[in-house]
Amino acid sequence: SAYTAIQNFTTSLRVTDEDADLLAKGIAIFPNPAQNEVTIEMESASPKTLNVRLLNNLGQTVAMQNNVQVDGKQQIHFNVSSLASGNYYVNIYDGQESLSYQLIISK
């Protein structure tokens, strides 16, 4: 026959592991992909001092902000307009734990 049977199936939307990890850590990076500026929003229930770096795909630091005080919600901004398109990483270090997340810069 020219007809095929219709089959029903169920699927669920799954947040990627990296997105889930960001949300669990109280971190938001936007926009991603970025063009001119990227905002990193961090939230902590207790006061923390963080070092935040942008790394290129060779692991070289291309921008950084050290001693960022986070108590509650805090935003920092990086001007990325001078960086070439490509894959970068946001590295956040709290003195004990280092977290890295992918950032795409697209011109």
Structure description:
It is built from 1 helix and 5 strands. It has 107 residues and is mainly beta. Strands 1, 2, 3, 4 and 5 form a 5-stranded antiparallel sheet that branches. The relative contact order is 0.24.
Structure summarized in a few sentences:
With 107 residues, the protein is mostly beta strands. The protein has 1 helix and 5 strands.
What attributes characterize this protein structure?
107 residues, mainly beta
Helix content: under 10%
Q: State the order of secondary-structure elements, H for helix, E for strand.
A: HEEEEE
Oligomer: single chain
Q: How is the biggest beta sheet arranged?
A: 5 strands, antiparallel
Head-to-tail CA distance between termini: 51 Å
The value of Rg in angstroms is 19 Å
Beta content: over 45%
